[in-house]
C-alpha cells in the first residue's frame, strides 16, 4: 500500500508519523488502527487529491485518538495540513453525540472543499467498516442491542453527512461512492431483517 504514495513527500512523512502515533491502537475487530487512516489516504489518492490533502487524510484521527495536539501538527506539517485535520476533528467539549456530530458537519462545511473531500473519504471508509460488521452478523453472530443502537446512531450521522456532501460537492467521485456504499448497506440491513 505504501508504494502507491511514492513521490508524495508530505504523505510519506505523515504515514511515518501516524504509524508511530497509532502504533499500539487496535480497531474493534483487532486489526491495527492505522489501516483506517491508510484507507482514507488511498481513497483520496484515487480521487486525485493533492499531497497535502492525502497527508491530512493519513493523520485525520490523530487529534481525536492520540495525544497529538494541533500545535504539534502545525509545527511538523504546517498550518494548511493541520487546519484540514482540525476541520474533520470532533470537538470533545460538546456533550452529546448528536450535538457533537452536528457541530462537526457544520465545521467541515465551513472549512471548504478540501475538508469536505477529506470528510467524504473518511465516511466512505467508515461505511465500508460498518458493512463488514453487518456481514459478520449475517453469518449468525448477532450483535447485542447496545451495539446495534450505536450502529444506528452512526448510520444517522453518515446519512446526514452524505446529504451535506451531496449538497456541497456533488460531482465528487467519493460522494458518489459514499452514496453507493450507503445504499448497499441499507439493502444488506433490509435483507438481514427479512431473513427468517
Structure keywords:
Hypothetical protein af1432; mainly alpha; about 200 residues
Short account of what is shown:
The chain has 196 residues and is mainly α.
Task: Tell me what you see in this structure.
- There is one protein chain.
- The chain has helices spanning 9-21, 35-46, 51-58, 62-65, 70-87, 97-111, 113-138, 145-168, 173-194.
- It contains 9 helices and no strands.
- With 196 residues, it is mainly α.
- It has one domain (2-194): Hypothetical protein af1432 (Orthogonal Bundle), CATH 1.10.3210.10.
Structural class: mainly alpha
Number of domains: 1
Report the C-alpha radius of gyration, rounded: 17 Å
- What is the number of beta strands? 0
CATH class: Mainly Alpha
Largest sheet: none
What is the CATH topology classification name? Hypothetical protein af1432
